[in-house]
């Protein structure tokens, strides 16, 4: 083994190095353009330096990249700030938009790999960070290892030029930490996983009937009592404001924006059980650990309800740098239509009074929500029950859309009837079905400019820890990420080849993906 930081560890799984897989078949999401360049590959070796000319904002991205590469390769890979670029370097550089034709928006990048050097350029550090994910996928999957991989891996990147920009600005993944609690460490790991596929939003479903997961000053029983239950009666858990800040900080380092959700006015049993005075009759209901929906409601005509929400939203707004606060609004089956509209309009004002934009499930379009608000479409276009709100209602309201059609984007649904985990009310949803749709044409009457992006919600009624979450997310989540990033028109036949090449990477990362028979895994 080469010299480096101690002996190579043996517990990195033995996976194919994908040396023979062409660059174009290794990338998810598909880039806007990729072409092969003449000449041999670039190789990481003992002399390779990571170079950041000029601007210091790029330094952090370079350090993150170098750190990951060092862990697995054992190479020194020093990070240098210099405008003199040495031969053989891996260069990260910020440019003005004019210098990067074809690169659009703050997250676009250009990656130019030649045997003599790698040049990654973008107009923002976020763009560089997205480009780093492409570079990762062009390296052998062993690069993902958390410890040094034994000798014999050729750390080569084929000579290519990638010019790439996202289709949508919102590419999210939701974690329901209310039905089953996930620890800060588990949430961070999921952030890493979604960032690998260039997703940029982590939506945290922080409250529901079964649990309340975020500390709110002045309302200690929300967590001390409401935080201690979850589906099935196991102990649950909650995040202190410090924990939440840590998640936000970790996500921001990966250019992922956190969207906190407090689900209202339904899905509120945990709050109602924690504070008798929040209930219309002043009596706290028992805690709930089942999986029914639609039975709880905040007390709409009580002023305390809005003082409570002002505290919750105000503190979340303070803790959250991103522009959105998600107020739920789904399945409020125990709230009258009139009360629902009154409630949503008041909550929308509360959110805006704290300088944020209101986001809610598509039902909120029944109310008059101010411009700048976002409706998250989830119920199938074919309708469902009377009063079902669809994406077109939301657009008519002047709201922007995030598309999460349950039959496609809900990664909590079973893959097929025999899947041991997950729900099936909107599925089962095969990997092909989760990929084979378009966010703009899925609902008639929606136009490209109405759509902010896509999101893959992970409900956790049946999922007890991150290992089970990963089994449902992989292999479907990368396909939803591609819906958000890549140009329309990708076909399943072509995608399944690229998806297959991801599995050795998951194995090295310790992700126990579902081994779908729809894909020819390497
Ligand atoms: C419906 S989708 C819900 C959630 C459940 C999910 C299970 C939506 C906005 N509400 O309360 O967890 O189905 O798939």
UniProtKB/TrEMBL annotation:
* Gene3D superfamilies linked to this entry: Chitobiase/beta-hexosaminidase domain 2-like, Glycosidases
Q: What EC class does the entry list? A: hydrolase
Residues covered by the Glycoside hydrolase family 20 catalytic domain: 168-487
Q: What residues sit in the active site?
A: 331 (proton donor)
Q: Which residues form the Beta-hexosaminidase bacterial type N-terminal domain?
A: 26-164
On whether Transport is a keyword of this UniProt record, the answer is no
GO cellular component terms, A-Z: membrane
Which molecular function GO terms apply here? beta-N-acetylhexosaminidase activity
Which UniProt keywords are listed?
Answer: Glycosidase, Hydrolase, Signal
Tell me which Gene Ontology terms the entry assigns under biological process: carbohydrate metabolic process; glycosaminoglycan metabolic process
Q: What is its EC number?
A: 3.2.1.52
Indicate the family of this protein.
Belongs to the glycosyl hydrolase 20 family.
Protein name, UniProt field: beta-N-acetylhexosaminidase
**Species whose genome carries this gene:** Vallicoccus soli
Organism lineage string: Bacteria, Bacillati, Actinomycetota, Actinomycetes, Motilibacterales
